[in-house]
Write a structure and sequence with these properties.
The protein has 238 residues and is of the alpha+beta class. It has six helices and nine strands.
């Protein structure tokens, strides 16, 4: 059934730091915890990270099953059994209602990993990764229990449907907090990935130079042999 209008998280520059309008919210801190935060001089950012670690990170680590509504081809890896076929279709193409996936945060806390529950030859039929670096908006979908993750250009990276409205709200709240609290982990993973790309580029450049040098040596060797043969032939004819 259709969702009531207006029930979604706002997008834009401040979207990743504003809580969503949801039917579920994590429990408030008790008096003892608030007193501890005051005595230790914890900042608002530190308190927010602590609450994220307590109430949201366990859910993201554990993961959950969803019905896959749609996924952008940039978030689907080529390793999946059906990835080659799926990349032929538009990102807006709706999935079969039986496309159940498992979604959870990666070990480095910088991306979301997903794979189909259906397998082929011992491996998921499809799988992929959604980098939190590219995530800009977490919003309700068009149907009850659904939520969509979009980038800053408004492109839907992945849209899934949870088994209930409350479960969807928990995940949306957790993902919204993840964008605000995991900035260090996301930045570290991005720098590591960029460093790997640079190393790969240098290695490829070295291989090209090596191949060019080998080709040059081969050409010069052929020239030298031809010259030697010509000199010997000239001497023999005298």
């Amino acid at each position: 059934k259709s969702r009531k209008a207006g029930r979604k998280m706002a997008s834009g520059a401040g979207a990743r730091f504003r809580p969503i309008d949801s039917e579920w919210a994590p429990p408030s801190d008790g008096c003892c915890q608030r007193l501890t935060d005051t005595l230790t001089g914890s900042s608002k950012e530190q308190i927010r990270r602590r609450r994220f670690d307590e109430h949201h990170l366990p859910l993201l680590r554990m993961g959950g099953s969803f019905n896959l509504i749609r996924v952008d081809k940039s978030c689907e890896s080529s390793g999946g059994f059906m990835a080659g076929m799926s990349s032929m279709f538009s990102a807006a193409k709706r999935e079969n209602k039986n496309s159940m996936i498992w979604l959870q945060v990666a070990a480095d806390l910088a991306s979301l990993e997903w794979h189909t529950l259906a397998q082929k030859k011992g491996s998921p039929e499809r799988e992929g990764i959604v980098d939190l670096e590219t995530l800009s908006c977490v919003a309700y979908g068009e149907t009850e229990g659904s939520c969509r993750l979009s980038n800053s250009q408004g492109k839907v990276l992945i849209e899934v449907e949870a088994e209930s409205e409350i479960e969807a709200s928990k995940w949306m709240y957790a993902l919204t907090e993840a964008m605000a609290c995991l900035t260090y982990e996301i930045s570290t993973a991005t720098k590591k990935r960029q460093g790997t790309v640079r190393l790969e580029g240098r290695w490829l450049e070295m291989q090209k130079k090596k191949a060019a040098a080998e080709a040059y040596k081969k050409d010069m060797g052929n020239v030298g042999m031809n010259y030697t043969a010509r000199v010997m032939m000239e001497r023999g004819s005298k």
